[in-house]
Amino acid sequence: MSRDLGRERRGVAPVIAVTILVAFAVVLATTVSAFVLVDNPDLPPPAPQISVSHQLVSDGDERTIAVTLEGGNAVDTDQLYVTGSKPLDIGGAPGSGTPADETYASDRENFVEAAGDNPPQVGIGEQWESGETIYLDPEGTAEGVTISIYWNTEPIEGGNPGTVTGDDANLIAEFRV
Questions:
Q1: Reported pTM
Q2: Is the separation of the CB atoms in 9 and 2 below 8 Å?
Q3: For a Cys staple, 168 with which of 39, 62, 141, 153, CB 3.0–4.6 Å?
């Protein structure tokens, strides 16, 4: 009988060891996931997802590029800028009070470009929403120009072309005319 009692005690030790090991693994997994899955305020917000269309529109003897937001998120205009494979100007439609004019072209144009205390030339308000169009007038001909639209996590500071702060600019649309 004493021999059977010893076997019962030896069988308990592995069960206790496994239970302690499982408990340790659960505590370790919980601790690691708390550090890994916590919301990190240093991570930039994700870039908006958009789709655009473009077409050339008559602008006297030249053509201007009309870029329309077709779908996706509405985007704050103070966080948007555009570049081209050659200098361009952003503005309103040809014939409007604030048309895009290649005379004022630069390497980067922000969407809230304005002269003095006037409202932004593009005329789309504080957000670029689906169905709204901006106009780009590159130096010389528009054919063959590559257009890139960027979203920045921080508003573009200052007048045109503005200052892009931080390293968090994201290319959200690009096309070749």
A1: 0.73
A2: no
A3: 153
Same-domain status, 82 and 35? no
Give me the domain span that covers residue 55. 50-176
Same domain, 36 and 122: no
Number of domains into which the chain is organized: 2
Q: Are 95 and 146 contacting, i.e. CB atoms less than 8 angstroms apart?
A: no
pLDDT in tens, 87-126: 999 888 888 888 888 888 888 888 886 666 666 677 788 8
Co-location of 117 and 168 in the same domain: yes
Q: Given the structure tokens 């120009």, which residue do they identify?
A: 145
Closest to 91 (Cα-Cα) out of 67, 73, 75:
67
pLDDT tens-digit map of 34-66: 766 666 666 777 888 999 999 999 888 888 999
Question: Is residue 3 included in any domain, yes or no?
Answer: no
Report CA dihedral (147, 148, 154, 160) to the nearest 10 degrees.
-30
CB 125 within 8 A of CB 113: no
Distance from C-alpha of 51 to C-alpha of 151, rounded to nearest angstrom: 13
Tokens linked to 24: 């340790």
Q: Do residue 119 and residue 35 come from a single domain?
A: no
* Residue 106 near residue 113 (C-beta atoms within 8 A): no
Pick from 95, 85, 133, 91: nearest CA to 109? 91
Q: Is 143 strand, coil or helix? A: coil
